[in-house]
Task: inverse folding
């Protein structure tokens, strides 16, 4: 059995963060990501657990599946299973109704990522502001990716589906993308954890 990570929270100790964590603790469905661990209402599972083990932790069978992706609509959770086995190799937490997955209607307002609250209304910059993270801790492409050194001897990624804003110069075919603009960020639509 995999051991739970005992990592220090990355949340800043502010009245705003404390209030959000208090609201999180009152939610019916509480989802957390702690590096390698996903926690639902105090019960942990990891990449590599089986679909049956995840269903036992969530207390119900999935509502739907798309190929090898199994979803719990009200929780806003989807697990991705390996084709050849029953092991989970990815997890998606939907914060908003996500294009193409309209039947997944999350009934959660706050998710914790390494102890830092993330709400539906919050843009990624506010998440960073409420944490001890800096933008330099993330690789920035079409989203913000946090690389975890090792989870069971494999590198793992926590991906925040939030469109980064870049400065541009020029126009039309001569438009050139410049540096990332940390003063403007978008809300996070989905959080994914997977082995890289």
Result:
């Amino acid at each position: 059995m995999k051991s739970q990570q005992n990592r220090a929270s990355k949340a800043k100790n502010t009245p705003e963060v404390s209030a959000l964590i208090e609201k999180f603790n009152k939610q019916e469905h509480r989802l957390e990501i702690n590096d390698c661990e996903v926690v639902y209402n105090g019960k942990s599972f990891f990449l590599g657990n089986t679909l049956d083990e995840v269903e036992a932790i969530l207390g119900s069978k999935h509502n739907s599946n798309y190929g090898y992706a199994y979803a719990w609509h009200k929780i806003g959770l989807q697990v991705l299973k390996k084709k050849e086995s029953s092991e989970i190799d990815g997890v998606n937490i939907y914060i908003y109704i996500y294009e193409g997955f309209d039947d997944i209607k999350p009934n959660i307002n706050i998710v914790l990522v390494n102890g830092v609250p993330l709400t539906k209304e919050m843009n990624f910059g506010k998440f960073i502001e409420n944490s001890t993270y800096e933008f330099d801790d993330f690789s920035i492409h079409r989203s913000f990716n946090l690389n975890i050194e090792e989870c069971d001897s494999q590198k793992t990624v926590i991906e925040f589906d939030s469109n980064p804003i870049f400065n541009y110069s020029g126009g039309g075919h001569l438009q050139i993308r410049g540096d990332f603009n940390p003063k403007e960020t978008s809300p996070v639509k989905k959080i994914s954890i997977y082995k890289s």
